[in-house]
Amino acid sequence: MAEITALILAAGFSRRLGQPKKDVRLPTGQSLLQHAITTATAAGLDVAVTLAAVEDLGPAVRVIAVPDPSEGMSASLRAGVAELEHEPDVHGILVMLLDQYRLTPADLTTLADTWRSTSCQIAAARYNGVVGVPAIFGRSHFHLLAAAKGDAGAREFLRRNHPTLPTVDLPHAAIDLDTSADVPDVHS
After folding, report:
1. How many domains does the chain have?
2. Nearest Cα to 132, choosing from 164, 107, 101, 97?
3. Structure confidence at residue 17 (pLDDT)
4. Is residue 21 one of the residues assigned to a domain?
5. Parent domain of 9
6. Are 148 and 77 in contact (CB under 8 A)?
7. Residues 6 or more apart from 20 whose CB is under 8 A from it?
8. In this predicted model, what pLDDT tens digit does every residue of 48-104 receive, in sequence order?
9. Alpha carbon distance, N-terminus to C-terminus of the chain
10. What distance in Å separates the CA atoms of residue 69 and residue 65, rounded to the nearest whole number?
11. Please, which pLDDT band fits residue 15 given cuts at 50, 70 and 90?
12. Which among 77, 82, 163, 149 has a CA at the least distance from the CA of 120?
């Protein structure tokens, strides 16, 4: 395992979208899940994906089953941390949302470089005037992810503490996919 593992949260029900986000196709033909995995891998990160049920995503991707995905994003965070905290080579978890499909490998690399250069052991994205994910949490902060509740994940912690956290401007993170109107036209 690498120093930082990207934890892609993909176990949700996508109620507003009406279909699993992981299966939505981008104009490239890739699913959102395939795209997120490709982006994280191209940034040199190991990849773990939380899913409602175990699927084979290839040998380079660790799949983590989420026992009760109906609990929201926090269930994925807790399951991911429970699995990854036992890996001694994982020093940081990069929390990545499946629907932020405009993120690039360069965005994730910049975030990782910022995280490596700080003593805070947390680095977060900044976009549209807010601080949020993707964000990297060092081992000393895994407990924050393990204590997440509801569908907010780590968002409230990041927003409450943002004045003291190292952040990186990532305008690509502002674009996400929550409803059918957000799905890129596959014919364009």
Report:
1. 1
2. 97
3. 61
4. yes
5. 4-182
6. yes
7. 13, 14
8. 999 999 899 999 999 999 998 888 889 999 999 999 999 999 999 999 998 899 999
9. 38
10. 9
11. low
12. 163
Q: Residue 72 is part of a domain; what is its CATH number?
A: 3.90.550.10
SS3 123: strand
| Closest to 178 in 3D by CA, of 63, 9, 24, 6 | 24
Written as one letter, the residue type at 180 is S
What is the identity of the amino acid at 120? C
Burial of 149 (0-12, 13-18, 19+ CB in 10 A): middle
pTM: 0.91
137: left (phi over 0), alpha (psi -120 to 50) or beta: beta
Q: Looking at the domain assignment, is residue 187 inside a domain?
A: no
Q: Which of 42-46, 151-155, 165-169, 181-185 has the lowest mean pLDDT?
A: 181-185
